[in-house]
Amino acid sequence: MMKLSVNLFMTLDGVSQSPGSPEEDPRGGFARGGWLMPVFDEGCGRAVDEWYSHTSALLLGRTTYNAFISHWPQVTDPEDRVASQINQRTKYVVTSSPVDEVWADTTTALGEDFLDRVRELKTHPGDELQVHGSIQLARTLQQAGLVDIYRFLIAPVMVGEGSSVFGSTNPASTMTVTSSTVTASGVVALELTPGEFRQAAAVVENGRDSIQQ
To answer: What are the structural domains of the chain?
Structure first.
């Protein structure tokens, strides 16, 4: 059975919108795109390569799919394993309109019943059904309790506005960190699994500061 993973670039203030360039996703008047590129180093590249080594299929929102179309089919370097995964793996696109001919043989459109389709896809054999970018889709999947793994590259950057996968309507959860590294430019690569929300309290017991579970 495949696990569903959400793989995102993120600023310190939680924004994942338009990390690659100012033109990538200017929706809502967002003018600070391209914030990741100044700090994207070899360590970031290794982390992303590791993400895609688990790809059995891709699940994308329409905006991210269109952004991928404009870039990845042009990357034909046989040594680029990320490009090979993106170009060759099956892509499921959540959209209300037909997709273009690009990648037609690897693309399936999902409509209004996409959550049921995702639940069914997770029962298929494989490693991971991966979401990349697609912030609104990732948020919907999180709210539906379908996400098994979160991976983030958290950049030492603050943009003050923009779209985030996290919001006030998300379910409470305590994450377990399964992997963490810091790259030379200070980007934190995290892999986490969601779990039951836990609470504790700071108390004084016998004159000692302690935590009461």
So the answer is: 3-212 (3.40.430.10)
